[in-house]
Design goal:
six-stranded mixed beta sheet, 11% strand, Nucleotidyltransferase, domain 5, 6 strands, alpha/beta, disordered C terminus, single chain, 3 domains
Amino acid sequence: MAHANARLTVHGRALLIERILAGHRPADVAHQMGCSRATAYKWLARFRSEGAAGLVDRPSRPHRCPHRTAPPIEARILESRRIHRRGARWIGDELGLAASTVGRVIRRHQMPLLRELDALTGEPVRRGPVSGVRYEREHPGELIHIDVKKLGRIPEGGGWRAHGRGVRPGSARAIGYDYVHSAIDDHSRLAYSEILPDERGVTCAAFMERAARFFGAHGITRIERVMSDNARNYRTSGAFQGVLAELGARHILIRPHCPWTNCEGDAAALDGRCEGGVDGRGHDSRTNWRSATRGGLLADSSVRGCRRRPGARTLA
């Protein structure tokens, strides 16, 4: 296998064979190519037995491994992983195998890690890029993250996850969307969310006013900065900019096409999605979801969907 300091690549081996076949002594050619006579004779023998294909790099793994786990056992391990979505230790205890053996089989077949799977369907979840810069503001109110998540409404009795993709008799089509508006304090991770019918500028402005009152009731009386994406309902809305002016807050826009830099709001909005509905408690309709969230309010002092930073403080 060729490496960074290899004397002979595929083309170098072909040149070595060409010179030997032209009548030059293998020892002289090896000296010219910077390799040993044994190496020259090795590639010559391989060329004579396999032709040009013998000069191509090949893996160094053995042709057979007598101690490798038997294919039926590997199939049982992979099936258990797909069905139960549990770790190597649990699968090993169930099948009577060592956890290290189960882990090697899972890695050999390149099965995704459990954290990369959807908790309900078991399908791999495509994750976008994340920022390598981790930060935390020094005190509450220094920075508030806001965002909107658009979620399709779920019909009464459940949606396609419960009944399949086919059209159910009597089911309503195109029942619209709900818009989950979220605001999260960067330092304390105190979160405030509402389910609203749209994401227009006036709606975002009214939500920001209510969020400010909510934060004020929890001790955050001064909001210095508000971070959002570049949506027009934030960037160009006169109503929203007027609310920020009344609060004395500076508007910070994230870099275009980099939504992961303002992921706090998405994390709160996505915190409860599940198969039965949007909420993590299994509600199967918009009505049940709204009643479970006390008329549209989702307030939590610790956002489960966000990764807590070391030392981050939660307000009571």
